[in-house]
Specification:
Length: about 725
């Protein structure tokens, strides 16, 4: 940047600073006029007039309340219940009032004869204010007359119009006609000068505030003029090249920031009333506690700096937005966050999104780390060391912030001291409780880590209750996992024992009969031994095949060949092919199957194996000469097959373990079989997304199979039906 540009920028900054100082000084010079306006508004005559204007609502309510005293249409207790204590109750203490009929006779017993005469005089000089409400025969308000020694005719007429409007508002807003309806009467109110002044002192409806102040000519007009001057200067100064500072970095902010600021200033009443509040308290002499020249100078300094900030913000916002006129269409692409965001999204696409995500993640992690650090510091709070000083610093900062706020309230300083002491005590108690609850949580965690899974985790630990709930879930999960592990170890032991037994039995027989066969010359005996060898070999083969099947099923390494299968026909086929075993077992099967076909996507071979294993299991363990019930039902979503039989031996096994590998109903293992039948059936059912449930009741054994009606799974192998 060359020397000339630097000089121009300095000149522009000085010009802008001078403008802000001038506008602020003009506002300060108008403070005397503002003070005069406040004094005029607090004048007794003005207060009287404003008070009379605000009495319309109360007098309108009084018309109905007073008439009800005469008519007794509504109990007074109900009047209080419906409408509460009316403001007229206070106003009535400072005035005379009466109700008169069309003949001029007083109707209220509380109105003395003297008061009635004074109220009824045509031109009474006794009252500074008098108002008469005339009601017709239908209860409508026919006329209002206002007079009094303290009122000019113009003021009296204005009050009549105001009271008429107030009467309509009160009538429709509160429904006062439900109390009573004045008919063909005149209600008259009168206030002496002394009573009017007294009422203004104790209950003046006019409470002068900065809201009234902000609408005054001295404040409002000056503020508008200086605002327009500041805005005009911000638009015109850049026209002089030597005074142009619009290209400074501070004025090149995105459009959304200055526009949002201006909208906020225009839309927020509270924000715009802050300067009015400060100025009003200044001219009233209540901005700062105390008195004297030092306090006055400090108050005026605060005001001057405030106006510098107000007009500075206006100047900055208008200067920032002036570029719209100069840059035109280029402004929207270069000086708006929206355009930049759209442009970056279009340019970078997913990469930008990923970058934003990473940035957001980084911010989140840093924020989380910071919060965790603060949380950890809070947990280890100790007022004898560095933490004590940290808390004191926080309290002092809090005190300083609130002290600035409390400058506008004299007694707020004392309240703030008490608040800070209480805050310190509260933080100390809070941290102590937090540490104690943390110790309880840590104790529970250590017990869990040491393996004490049966120790209950109880007690209210406040902030750490969610962590305690999670620890309970972990404890429950650990106990379940331990129980499962113990069960698995037991099952492994039994598995080894059972496999050894089931493999050793046929192998021992094979070895024995091979030795016998070597030394046997009798052809009939040799033939008999060969048949036994064949039978034992076949059993060993079946056992090995079952082992392979259950191994593949457990590892989910099974290829399912889905096809359309009539499950009703398939179950019938299994029954027919095992008919000889059923007859040998002396069992009577009762079939209850649907008459129609039920075609489903199933693996035909494995579904056949499920039914075969269950029926064979029944022929082995069912009591002879009993009935077996096989039933199939169809629902909208699945098919359910139920098989029930009476066991030949006592059912003393665990139904939850009967479908495990090598678990058999006869613990003595006298019957032939691998102990894998139900386990294979369960695996094949689950591979087809079904379920099998084994239940017992006394000697009744029941197996329930549920197969869902599903479409062919995606990616599954299919075989033509």
């Amino acid at each position: 940047m060359d020397t000339r540009s630097i000089s121009s920028r300095k000149a522009g900054i000085l010009a802008a600073a001078a403008l802000l100082c001038i506008c602020s000084a003009v506002m300060m010079l108008r403070y005397q006029d503002m003070a005069d306006w406040v004094d005029s508004m607090e004048d007794i005559g003005t207060r009287q007039t404003e008070t009379l204007y605000e009495m319309g609502d109360d007098l309108s309510e009084g018309n109905y309340l007073l008439y009800n005293e005469y008519s007794q249409e509504t109990a007074f207790s109900d009047v209080l219940e419906w409408y509460g204590q009316s403001p007229f109750e206070l106003l009535g203490r400072y005035m005379d009032y009466g109700i008169f009929d069309s003949e001029g006779e007083s109707l209220l017993s509380d109105t003395s004869e003297t008061e009635a005469q004074r109220l009824a005089e045509e031109e009474s000089q006794y009252y500074a204010f008098r108002a008469s409400f005339y009601f017709g025969e239908a209860g409508e308000l026919s006329d209002i007359q206002v007079d009094g020694s303290a009122l000019e005719p113009k003021t009296a007429y204005s009050l009549e119009q105001q009271y008429l409007a107030d009467f309509d508002n009160v009538l429709y807003a509160y429904g006062l006609s439900s109390i009573s309806t004045p008919e063909n009467v005149t209600v008259v109110y009168g206030m002496t000068e002394a009573n009017l002044n007294a009422y203004c002192e104790v209950e003046s409806p006019l409470e002068l505030s900065f809201y009234n102040f902000s609408s005054s000519t001295a404040y409002g007009d000056t503020l508008e003029m200086m605002t327009l001057l500041t805005a005009a200067a911000a638009l015109l100064l850049p026209c002089f090249r030597r005074l142009d500072i619009s290209e400074m970095k501070i004025f090149r902010v995105p459009f959304e920031i200055p526009a949002g600021l201006l909208l906020l200033m225009l839309a927020s009443a509270d924000l715009m009333n802050i300067p009015a509040y400060v100025a009003y308290r200044t001219v009233k002499g209540t901005l700062l506690p105390g008195s004297g020249n030092g306090v006055t100078i400090l108050a005026m300094t605060i005001n001057f700096l405030m106006w510098i900030v107000v007009y500075g913000l206006i100047f900055w916002a208008v200067t920032s937005l002036r570029a719209m006129i100069r840059m035109k269409r280029a402004y929207w692409s270069e000086r708006t966050l929206t355009a930049k965001l759209v442009r970056r999204i279009r340019k970078r696409g997913d990469a930008y999104g990923g970058a934003m995500k990473r940035k957001a993640g980084g911010i989140f992690r840093r924020t989380k780390k910071f919060l965790a650090k603060q949380y950890d510091a809070l947990l280890h709070l100790d007022f004898q060391d560095k933490t004590n000083r940290t808390i004191l610093k926080i309290v002092l900062i809090n005190f300083a912030i609130l002290f600035i706020v409390c400058l506008f309230w004299y007694y707020g300083t004392f309240a703030l001291i008490i608040y800070s002491v209480l805050l310190f005590i509260f933080l100390r108690k809070f941290t102590r409780d937090l540490q104690e609850k943390y110790k309880l949580l840590l104790r529970s965690t250590n017990q869990l880590a040491e393996g004490h899974l049966d120790v209950p985790i109880e007690g209210d630990i406040g902030l750490f209750n969610p962590i305690q709930d999670e620890l309970k879930k972990i404890q429950k999960g650990f106990k379940k996992a331990v129980e499962e592990e113990v069960k698995n170890e037991r099952m492994k032991t039994e598995l080894v024992t059972n496999v050894s037994h089931d493999l050793r039995t046929p192998l021992t027989a094979i070895i024995t009969y091979v030795d016998l066969l070597k030394n046997e010359d009798n052809e009939a005996k040799r033939k008999e031994y060969i048949e036994v060898l064949e039978r034992k070999s076949l059993r060993l083969k079946i056992l090995i095949e079952d082992l392979f099947e259950i191994s593949k099923a457990a590892s989910k390494n099974v290829v399912m060949h889905y096809m359309k299968v009539d499950i009703v026909d398939l179950l019938k086929q299994v029954g027919l092919e095992n008919d000889s075993k059923i007859r040998e077992a002396n069992l009577e099967f009762r079939w209850k199957l649907p008459e129609h076909k039920i075609v489903m996507w199933l693996d035909s071979q494995k579904t056949y194996r499920i039914f075969e294993n269950l029926i064979v299991n029944i022929t082995k363990y069912a009591m002879p000469h009993t009935r077996v019930y096989i039933e199939m039902t169809e629902t909208e979503n699945d098919v359910r097959i139920s098989m029930k039989n009476v066991s030949a031996s006592e059912l003393d096994f665990n139904v939850d373990e009967i479908t495990d590998r090598f678990v058999r109903g006869d613990s003595s293992r006298n019957t032939e079989g691998s102990g894998l039948g139900l386990a294979i059936a369960k695996s094949f059912v689950e591979l087809q997304h079904g379920s099998i449930k084994i239940s017992t009741e006394a000697d009744l054994f029941k197996a329930d199979i549920t197969l869902p009606k599903t479409e062919i799974p995606e990616g599954a192998e299919t075989t033509p039906a």
